[in-house]
């Protein structure tokens, strides 16, 4: 019970392996005494916000009182409530601290509210899951009314049959069949069962995980071929999967078919087992690209996904100036404490010289140490301006104004999507412009991975009629969708030259561009061929070869097919060599 009350603690991932059953009733060993599954799964609802309605006040005050100055101001407020130290009304003395903590709380609450809005929009996104179908990994309702209602719905579902239905991301469950379409976000960690592409391949964009915009190739389980909801409802197997783990580059599981595959019955009296790895797993946060559809099975949801396990809790970001202020304020407090001690010791020594004279300005001479103790706290109140409380109030106001200026700055406005610069954390505005070094592993970040074939050198001669625009990078960014084909009059003349060495070298060059790649071809509704490349570099090279006349048409298991400018069709064998680091 106490563990449930600790809502601020992060949930630990499961350490035991999991079995996900598909169209297979759970064995008795997986059920409890009431016939419900022992294995419980988290929901697919994600939360990146720091606070909730109940935790906002205590958690925000805990973070604010990380500042040494706030503790000092709280001590002064407490002292003002005692009549011996009261200089002004205690409420008036507490007002500056209340203003500072209140403004900071409002600012933090507004920032966290934006996180809640983002979480709600992500959780309410729509995807397609298999409906009119039973997921055996979850218990049925124990209520008599709901169980009676579920029986009626099951009968209706049997008449209608399985079909794809729209489902919110937060309602996706482990063991659900899911269908993803092109350019859709992946709502959970999904095992690929079938794709629309040849050789059961698909492409995903993983920039939300590792920052790479180049597309990654993923493949489905080759032994499974399903396309319709009926196929999903008829196939029977279960998955022996490893427990949730944060490693983005490792995953191991086994698909177990107790009755064997449709085209491969049980051999030697045992079930058919198929091992799978990360190459068949789509991770949450990625985007499906250049693939018409993918059918998969949900393996991990919510906080069990690799993205959530690597995200951690939302940190409390503090600027460099704020981090420097704590030791400086601490030094001021030490100086002020020494001054208060000096006043207390001086009071004790000075009053000690008047004990025998019985002066009228001494209230009592019985306990001079007590008088010195009271002097220390009174001196603390008198010297409180050494730690300026107005400094924090000014900083919070300046940060808010700076965040507004950043939002309204036209030079930070992105014209293509009409998006202003939105400061999501106001605490970091005073860190702007303090970057001394910037390291980049490659130029993809600077070029935005927008590639265009401009010129080439063949046999020591440069070809290409590309001329740079006068507008520079800003002009090109606004017109990035307009790409000019690669042309050169001298190139066409040299290709038809009587010099066999020159023309042969040019033909070999563009032939290699047309075949040495991993690009796939698809046909849109207008009948036009579209290239689906793992990286924009490959797409630009293949498109340049097409502009010259060497058109890549299709990739088959026995080779690759292209056409030349003379109309000749070539079928060339290929072997893809991949290097894994």
Could you outline the blueprint of secondary structure elements for this entry?
Layout: H1 2-5, E1 18-22, H2 56-64, H3 68-80, H4 90-123, E2 126-131, H5 144-160, E3 163-168, E4 177-181, E5 189-195, E6 201-205, H6 207-210, E7 215-219, H7 229-234, E8 237-241, E9 252-257, E10 260-261, E11 264-265, E12 272-277, E13 281-282, E14 287-289, E15 293-300, H8 306-311, H9 320-352, H10 368-382, H11 389-408, H12 444-447, E16 456-458, E17 461-463, H13 472-478, H14 489-495, H15 500-515, E18 520-523, E19 529-532, H16 536-548, E20 551-556, E21 559-563, E22 569-572
Antiparallel strand pairs: 1-8, 2-3, 2-4, 4-15, 5-13, 5-15, 6-7, 6-14, 8-9, 9-12, 10-11, 16-17, 18-19, 20-21, 21-22
Could you explain how this protein is built, in words?
The protein has 581 residues and is of the alpha+beta class. It is 36% helix and 18% strand. It has 16 helices and 22 strands. It has helices spanning 2-5, 56-64, 68-80, 90-123, 144-160, 207-210, 229-234, 306-311, 320-352, 368-382, 389-408, 444-447, 472-478, 489-495, 500-515, 536-548, and strands at residues 18-22, 126-131, 163-168, 177-181, 189-195, 201-205, 215-219, 237-241, 252-257, 260-261, 264-265, 272-277, 281-282, 287-289, 293-300, 456-458, 461-463, 520-523, 529-532, 551-556, 559-563, 569-572. Strands 3-2-4-15-5-13 form a 6-stranded antiparallel beta sheet. A hairpin with a 2-residue loop joins strand 10 and strand 11 (264-265). Helix 2 (56-64) packs across helix 4 (90-123), helix 3 packs across helix 4 (90-123) and helix 9 runs antiparallel to helix 10. The longest helix has 34 residues, at 90-123. It is elongated. The model is unreliable at 1-11, 142-149 and 469-481 (pLDDT under 50).
